[in-house]
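This part of the workshop introduces the protein records we will be handling. The question running through the whole workshop is how a given chain folds. To make this concrete, we reproduce a full record directly below:
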Amino acid sequence: MVVIFEGKGTVDLAGLNDSVAVLKGVGTKRQVALNKLGINTINDLLTYFPRRYDDLSIKDPSSAVDGQKVTVKGLVIAPPMLTYFGRKRSRLVFRLRINDQIYTVSFFNQPWLKREIQPNSELIVFGTYNRARNQIQGMKILNAQTSNAFDSIYPANKEVKQATIKSLVKLAYETYHDQIVDIIPASLRAKYRLESFSDTIRNIHFPESPKAAQRAFRTAKFMEFFLFAMKVQILKAAHRKQDPQAEINYQESVVTKFQENLPFKLTAAQQKVIQEILADLSRPIQMNRLLQGDVGSGKTVVAATAILATISANKQAAIMAPTEILAEQHANNFAKMFAGLPVNIALLTGDTSAAARKAMLPSIQTGEVDLVVGTHALFQADVQYADLGLAVIDEQHRFGVNQRQALRQKGTSTNMLAMTATPIPRTLAITMYGDMDVSVINQLPSGRKPIKTTWITASKTNAAVRFVKKQLDSGNQVYVVTPLIEESEAVDMKNAVAIFERFKAIFEPQYQVGLLHGQMSNQEKDATMLQFKNNQFQVLVATTVIEVGVDVANANTMLIFDADHFGLAQLHQLRGRVGRGATQAYCILIADPTNEIGKERMKAVASSTNGFFLSQKDLELRGQGDITGQKQSGMPDFKVADPVGDLNILTVANQEAQRITAEKHWKTKPENVQLAKYLQFSQTINYD
């Protein structure tokens, strides 16, 4: 979110970048410390919002709930006692009479407060009330002027204290509040009862009541979502400009014959998304589509159809995978699918020899190669395409925006199809992929057996090991997943190295045990995975690097230690590594959750094989920040808004952004002038 300043009747957009150093009291040292908190400009400071508020209005502790933070006023009835223990640690204790009741008040590691505590004087204390002991653990001593208010509590560090942030925010607001311009159009503010932006800033930093802060935060959330949604709509419009060169005039008969000759029948969901993609390709507009498909839903054959359609129009296609072994698997799969068809396939990765690469590049440049399968090597400077009509990105969340764009720019008007098996609920699709059209395969191919998932506690681990032995004796292979590589003193979790040694002791020499983790080089990872695929290892102990991996049809069992330390979507993604063959697949979760939410999460993943349901459940239980075990790549970093908790606001803000940008000359409407200037200044709109 950004504050816009106005001076002398005109918008001074350059003021947006004024350094906090212009404020009195901000020298070089303090400026550096503020920068560490992300406060670089006046804008940053005014939108550096409190994380919570303390109610400093005076209350009677007898009516307080145990553990509640309270502000109390009483009479000091005896001199305070200061005790030192350990190095630089202290405890300050005194007694306070409040309404004929005596309370013990203690302050830890604040010895300087002793001089503020005088017998027979009144004192206002803010702290946590302990009903059982009739005690108050003090946090701060207040004066009469600040006690009847709501105190803003900011994220701070050792270099920048709360008091410093408060005083700087106050100074900035007093200096600039008359110059803050409203970016949100007046009609929207009236329609949704939003505050002016100046009032929003004031009521967030200096609220007179919790309701005032709540109203202000509601406006701030709408504004944050709305400005983001406006940017997304502008990006989307830019992608959808008329571009005749993007049109793929594919041969429908070739596509139909390909589908008829498949050894299986496409599901209704696959047919639906194929039609969406083919419709995109046939338009004179660059396709920018995300294909979401649960583990095993059949995204590859959908991509193959799009690729073949592109090739039938005498254009090239490329598919980029995150690892060399996955790229090789794709090349083999496409070779089988396109057997008997006039499709030339090339595999280009970092492992491609210099001689093979030298021979391959001219064939790609002349168009002799129809489909190029590879890794990051696909967009290297010396790789030139004849006419790249379609770029497919597999496991797109493993690539950065610049990497995806680099491949797309290898063609003149390249269509983009990004694929992901990471289930992302519609709740987040607006924010993560707002500039893309989304297709979803929400149906598994018929005949595929659901993976049987069981949750057990650590005390039953031996029984799980016996089950693993039984599967190995039946000729199957097993994944064993742990959250850590090596033992950590800070976290009591199973680790890959220890489990590897334990399973070697149990199963070798009858069965071979391999180890795979993220600190290995890409070559080592690929070699280990290839050995497992070739059944040189029967048990593979691994961290989450196998989350996206090759198909090992013979692996039918997965054992996951400390399963409660993973996100539900990530657990679902992991167990998708098994069940690739005809044998019944099993996933055993070993976990001892410490709370009810943890138990509910384990029950959810054990009872459902629907990745989209689990992803939504994870959002409800844990929030947006970590739906796959790590922060989602590409997730917008909102300051106050939460795409999950504030979904209604997000939806409305998105609808309004769509409505406004649908008008041809929206930028010139008087009520949109400030909005358009803000978007232009933030480099969202480039006027010709």
User: Anything to note?
Assistant: The chain has four domains: 57-147, 182-236+645-687, 244-441, 452-608. The longest strand covers residues 90-98. DSSP finds 21 helices and 24 strands in the chain. The radius of gyration is 31 Å.
